[in-house]
Amino acid sequence: MEIENLDHILLFKTNIKSEDCKAKMQTILDRYEGIIKWNIALDDRDCVLRVISYSLNHQQIIELINSYGFDCCELT
Amino acid sequence: MRIRDEDKVKLVKQKALESIVKDGFEGFSMNRLAKTCGISVATLYIYYKDKDDLIISIAREEGDKMGDMFIENFDPNLSFEEGMRVQWSNRYKFLTENPSAHLFFEQLRTSTYQERFLDNFMKKFKTVIGEFMQNVVAKGEIKPMSLEVFWSIAYAPLYALVRFDREEQSIGGKPFKLTEEVLWQTFDLVIKAFKS
Description:
The structure holds two protein chains of two kinds. Chain A is an alpha+beta fold.
């Protein structure tokens, strides 16, 4: 087993369903301090948002996404 | 702390291959795969960015595995017949030991994923086999010809036999089981075709 800490991968269930919604979040997520990389799986029924961050926690991302009017909760 | 569990990763790859072969790319989803593997969707997204990332990384890995098997005990300086014999033997071994991987590549060929994994695909294998082909042409063992003509004579018969064997029938539903005898009898005819 490879010992590799994967705690910096944060996963969320969202309602960011379309390319348009994704585009709306694009600039914000691209520029947000602490977010190294992110992507949204639009083809997934949970519209999974995947964020790589070494400094942010789940709650901070949830609040950020919520503040733009989208649902967001931790994917478990 | 979350850590990468290699056993889980292996299971994910195996089940993904099987599901894609069975249901195609359309019927394949991360949710369904997680369920099949008995793991959470989150675990799957820890290992792979999304569905496309998963499919492409599996394709690359399986391609390298296939390429490595194809060049096992294969020396590009072999004579044409000996080199081809090793190729047939390695390919036959790969096809019988990894039927899902082979069918997975058949599906990829006709999908939109094709162009996205072809870069660097089986690079090591392509270098070695390229060298072999150059050598046999330089030695005058075979005439120069297009890749399509070469492949259709050199390997297509092997893949046809393996397909008959997998489907347990040949032409017109005739029951068929591939034997070593039939395999090497076909091989001899292939070699003869290049010599004439």
